[in-house]
Design goal:
Layout lengths: L8 H11 L6 E6 L5 E3 L2 E2 L6 H7 L7 E4 L10 E5 L4 H6 L6 H8 L3 E4 L3 H11 L2 E4 L14 H12 L4 E4 L1 H9 L3 H21 L9 H13 L11 E4 L20 E5 L3 E2 L2 E2 L3 E5 L6 H19 L7 H18 L5 H5 L39 E4 L2 E4 L4 E4 L2 E4 L7 E2 L8 H8 L2
Parallel strand pairs: 1-7, 5-6, 7-8
Antiparallel strand pairs: 1-4, 2-3, 4-5, 9-10, 10-13, 11-12, 14-17, 15-16, 17-18
Length: about 425
């Protein structure tokens, strides 16, 4: 892996939190992701399932984690099952983890080769009553491909139909949403790498530059800083393309006088950052662009202050909507009649700001978190308001990542990334 090794104590803590919420006499199993084929003999780069990584630090395909806190023997309470390395694999792919390396990474002493999994599991099933299966229940999830986890669930239910079934996801949604200090440090590193890339492109952007050239400059900085690359598919949207919320073609020329909305950020050690900045192609904002930009920035700053322990996600968005409505009135995009006659289910401000303001962030860009439960200290959220004006040919979004504190305002992990109009213009014209 490109990233520096992570101390195994993080994963020991994470497993302890999960095990503490398991039912008596239960087993939990977590599988690595598949390596997904493209065609012929080509495949997509491997990306580890975030849950097994969160609980073990193992970043390798064909791995299984098994937790059995009430097992009768100590060496059965935590187990890893790994693909056995050999000379052929070492020559063609590079050696896989051996048992000593797996222990150093995860803190798990009992490591088996994968071919022994069914035999070991058969014994453990005689001691246990319940199995935790790890289904994807994220509120944004749309899964059409059968995953390795899904295949395991089908196999297990057929093999052991008398056992009770429980779900890992509700436990993970809660414990993964509250970050350990080590996790916040990893997210901060992803943000620091993102800062380097953003500062790199500010003097690079000029009229005529292609969106994909900006993408390439960022990727260069990510890779040289030990990141695998973008934490999510990058959006580099110049001109009216910024009004397409998930514009990812990145294939147009950036023209003089336009703005570029860049929703681009690095990952580090599987942890995400999530940044959006909107900059002027010519190095200077017009008066109108500046007015809209500063309105979005004010909304972001006010919204950030509301991210405190006890805040409810739904009510937070209602309050942000009120602030945005005031700014849109000031910009002349809405009038009082628009607000008085608005549909409560789709308020007037939604014409120009149609997405949410914040989401959980961490191992996944849209990370785990139960939206009906109050916010807690050490949760990490984005703050990303925007105003989109197709009739004027531009859209502006500004986004930072913040950590909720026990008291006071959140800590901004992106506080060093240029955001004010004057600083962006100065760096673009240096």
């Amino acid at each position: 892996m490109k990233y520096h090794s992570i101390d195994a104590t993080l994963f020991v803590k994470n497993r302890s939190k999960f095990a503490a919420q398991m039912k008596p006499n239960s087993v939990a199993i977590f599988n690595s992701n598949d390596i997904y084929p493209v065609s012929a003999d080509s495949s997509l780069p491997f990306a580890q399932h975030r849950d097994i990584f969160y609980l073990s630090g193992i970043d390798q395909e064909e791995s299984i984690l098994l937790l059995f806190p009430d097992a009768p023997y100590e060496n059965q309470k935590e187990m890893l099952f790994l693909k056995e390395t050999n000379e052929h694999i070492a020559i063609w792919e590079g050696a896989k983890l051996n048992k000593e390396q797996a222990f150093a990474t995860s803190g798990i002493k009992t490591v088996h080769w994968l071919q022994n999994f069914e035999k070991v599991l058969a014994e453990l099933m005689t001691y246990s009553d319940t199995i935790y299966i790890n289904t994807n229940e994220h509120y944004r999830a749309v899964v059409e491909t059968e995953t390795r986890e899904a295949r395991f669930v089908k196999w297990w239910k057929e093999k052991y139909p008398a056992h009770s079934v429980a779900k890992s996801n509700p436990i993970l949604q809660r414990i993964r949403s509250v970050k350990e200090p080590e996790e916040i440090a990893l997210i901060q590193e992803a943000c620091n790498i993102t800062e380097k890339a953003f500062r790199r492109i500010l003097p690079f952007v000029k009229p005529g530059v292609m969106e994909y050239e900006i993408e390439a400059e960022m990727m260069h900085e990510f890779l040289r800083s030990r990141s695998k690359g973008f934490a999510y598919t990058p959006i580099i949207a110049s001109g009216n393309s910024a009004n397409v919320l998930h514009y990812i073609e990145n294939n147009k020329a950036c023209n003089a006088g336009e703005l570029i909305l860049m929703d681009t950020a690095a990952e580090y050690a599987n942890y995400s950052s999530d940044l959006t900045r909107t900059i002027p192609v010519s190095g200077r904002y017009s008066d109108r662009q500046k007015a809209v930009y500063n309105a979005v920035l004010r909304v972001k700053n006010e919204a950030t202050k509301m991210l405190t322990p006890g805040t409810l996600w739904k009510q937070y968005h209602i309050e942000v909507g009120k602030i945005m409505t005031s700014e849109l009135l000031g910009l002349g995009l809405l009038d009082k009649a628009d607000v008085q006659n608005e549909d409560p289910e789709w308020p007037a401000y939604k014409k120009y700001f149609m997405h949410g303001t914040s989401h959980h962030m961490g191992l996944d860009t849209h990370d785990y978190g139960i939206l009906t439960e109050p916010m807690q200290a050490n949760m990490v959220f984005t703050v990303e308001p925007g105003i989109y004006i197709p009739a004027e040919g531009f859209g502006i979004r500004i986004e930072d990542d913040v950590v909720i504190q026990a008291t006071g305002e959140p800590f901004n992990l992106m506080k060093n990334i240029p955001i004010e109009v004057d600083e962006i213009e100065s760096l673009m014209n240096a």
